[in-house]
Every structure is written in structure tokens, then in C-alpha cells.
């Protein structure tokens, strides 16, 4: 009878009782060849945030190529690039705040009206008189306080009043815009504080201060969302509020803080807008809510919550602003531009749904 060769198991005990064969060669296991592992890793990388951001970069580069081919040096000039970034900075700051709210499972339709109210309140005669006596930072503080206060009211009504975010912020949109019209009597209020205009309207090493503020807000938002417990709670609340509550997160308080954060972003945007236009008016911020939501969705943040990306939002803002700039340089009407934006939003949402379905996300 043939002698049976026994092998040891993982713990040193008896093995399977089969003949011992040569040890497996690393990297030669069936289905685990280096080429297959590389392709699998590359596919996983492209299906994640890197792939989404790469698609946005390609889209932005294509828009820039179209701008260069159709407008030539008028588009490719340094001054025009700075103009694009300056125009992107104000709505970009609002979009950063909107990213947090949407990631947390909410929505805010009142951001444009809050920006308008903040500019009007900060440019009233009494506020500017105080700024003249003390410092122009009084106007900045007023705008930030108004924005944060509106965000706090939204958050309390949504989190503790159990009102739907859509209805609550729609009511705030009407109320804030109406209050701005009442305070300003539907007139434009000129900024008389030259210090504010000189500071935020200036340049540092050739770069507009508004662009630097946008960059700082975006960097701070990225750190807050990706490197702090606040960001992890935001993702948890947006992904599954009940599970987040059972995990010990105060969902109501956190939801309120998200809307306060967005209100604060609106206050910063109001200060930037006052410096850029040297005025406060109830017509500021028209359709900012649509532009901000569109930029956030284009960037890859899920409308259903639970996933957000600050980098994607920045690219989304730049894509829409560059698109507007290309249309303006080529003297194309705003109606065509609106249609193009609508198509981009629809395509982005359809791609989100496809990715979510592939990953098993409801």
C-alpha cells in the first residue's frame, strides 16, 4: 500500500492528508496575477473620489479648450482667468457651506435671500455710521451675524420643529428677501467704508483677495469634512440619521449646526459681494441657491446625503463659472446658457444614480 504523506495545518497540527506539493509562489495564485490585481485596483481607484474628480478635471479642461478655440487670447489671458476666479469665489463660498448641508441630508433654498439680507443689513446708514466711528469690521461682523442667525432659525425649525427642509428654507427665501426689501426700501445702499472695499477688493501677489478668501474657505471646509469628528458626524447623519442617533450622535443639534455653518458661509459671501459691487441691495444673490446646489451635485455630493466632497464642489463651481465666461465672450444669450446648465445637471444626477445603483446604495 502506498504510504500517505501528511502535511501540517496552519497551527502545526495534521493537515488534509493529501500529498504535499510545492509551496505556492507569491503572485501566482489563480485569479491573482499582477496584471489582474493592477486592473482591479485601477478600476477601484477610478470608481472612487479620484475617478470622479478626474472626470471633473477633464470636463473643465474641455471647457477651457472650447473657450480658447472660440475666444482666443481673450479667454486665455491672465486677467480673464482672474475674472473667472473672482466670479467663482462668491458662489463658491456659498457652495462650500451647501456641501455640508446636503451631505448631512438637508437642502437650503434660501441662501441667495440670506446673502441679500446680509448685504442690506450691513450697509444701512446706522451700521455704516458705527463702522465709520469704530472700524469697518463692524460691517463684516453684522453680515456674518445676520447670515448665522438666519441659518440658526432654519436649523431649529428643521431639527426641533420637525419641518421639512424644503418648506422651511422656501419660507426663509421669501421672508429674507422681503425683509431686505423693507430695510432698503428697494433701493441700492452704497458702501461708504473705503477700508472694506480696499481690503477685500485688493490683490496679494497679483491674486485677488476674494480668490484667496475662497481658497481659505475651501481648505477649511475640506479639513472640517475629512479630518474632524464634525465631518464624520455629518456623513453619519446624512447616511442614516437613526443609526447615527443610536451611535450617540445628537442628530438634532448637529443638523442645526450644519445650517448655522451654511448661514455663516452666506455672511462671508455677502461681505465679498459688498466689496466687489460696493453696494448692498435686496437683489443680490438671485438664483444663488440653484447655482450652489448645481455645483454641489456636479461635484459628486449625493443629494440623498451621506457622501460629500469639497474638492468636487470647487471643480463644480469652476465648471459653471467657466461655462458662463465662455458664453459671455462669445456673445451667446443667457437662455442657451441656462439650457446648457440644465443639461449638465441632469447628466450629473443620472451618473450619480448609476454609480449608486452599482454600489448598492438605495
The helical percent reads over 70%
Largest sheet: 2 strands, antiparallel
Shape descriptor reads: globular
Cα end-to-end separation: 61 Å
| Widest sheet: strand ordering | 1-4
Number of helices: 16
The topology string of helices and strands comes to: HHHHHHHHEHEEHHHHEHHH
Low-confidence stretches: 1-22, 25-29
> What fraction of residues sit in β-strands?
under 5%
Computed over alpha carbons, the radius of gyration is: 26 Å
Structural class, from secondary structure content?
A: mainly alpha
Mean pLDDT: 85
The number of strands is 4
3D structure, described in words:
This protein has 362 residues and is mainly alpha-helical. It contains 16 helices and 4 strands. It has helices spanning 34-47, 49-71, 73-76, 78-103, 111-122, 125-133, 137-159, 165-184, 194-200, 209-226, 229-239, 241-246, 251-277, 288-299, 310-329, 334-358; strands at 189-190, 203-204, 207-208, 279-280. The strands form 2 sheets. Strands 1-4 form a two-stranded antiparallel sheet. A two-stranded antiparallel ribbon has the order 2-3. A hairpin with a 2-residue loop joins strand 2 (203-204) and strand 3 (207-208). Helix 9 (194-200) packs across helix 13 and helix 14 packs across helix 15 (310-329). The protein is globular. The chain starts with 33 loop residues before the first helix and ends with a helix. The model is unreliable at 1-22 and 25-29 (pLDDT under 50).
How would you concisely characterize the structure shown here?
This protein has about 350 residues and is mainly α. Helix content is about 70%, strand content about 0%.
